[in-house]
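debug: dumping io for the single-chain case to check the tokenizer round-trip. Nothing else runs in this session.
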Amino acid sequence: MQKYYPPVYKSHQFHCIQCAVYATQSWHNFYYSSGHGGFTVADDWDFCVCGHCHKWSYWYKKQMIVPSSAPVPPPHVDMPQECLADYDEARDIVAISPRAASALLRLALQKLMTVLGEKGRNINDDIGELVKKGLPVLVQQALDFCRVVGNNAVHPGEIEINDTPEIAHNLFVMMNLIVEERISRPKHIQSLYDKLPEGARKAIEKRDGAS
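debug: decoded output
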């Protein structure tokens, strides 16, 4: 999974929040007429142009205000369709309400459980079942991070998500990590395995069937 570089004020390279490509960014000042035939720099305003899509982002006092999306990664290319709408909606609103975005990602996680072969009724129980089936600790921790933070978004808890928006931002990273580990990597390995000669695959199947 490619590392995500969020938009940072005056940085010359990051993932564009509009086209999601890691690209060169060029920064420019706004000017306004001084009324005497000259122009003055608008100190608190800047705009940035993506070198890939050529779209502009607008910044006020070092904060991106248009587009208003928070600097969180786009959905993984293999994000299941069942989860995609919730993920995108959470991404649209996380800058305004990290708590609401976290609640949406909890719903996306619940839907992801069914994609991973579980019941999707109780996330905690589903994670426990996956652990019994040999779920790696790394993925278990990512799942539980999303579960606990999501639960705190829905029910009163110990985590004040709106006061610590970076926790909500990390949820997006964790969701993509889960998709990478449980969907993308197995799919990639299977595609490589399927390219082996048929005779070699049959010999492997015979070996494993006899063990």
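debug: round-trip ok. Strands lie at 13-15, 22-33, 39-50, 56-60, 63-66.
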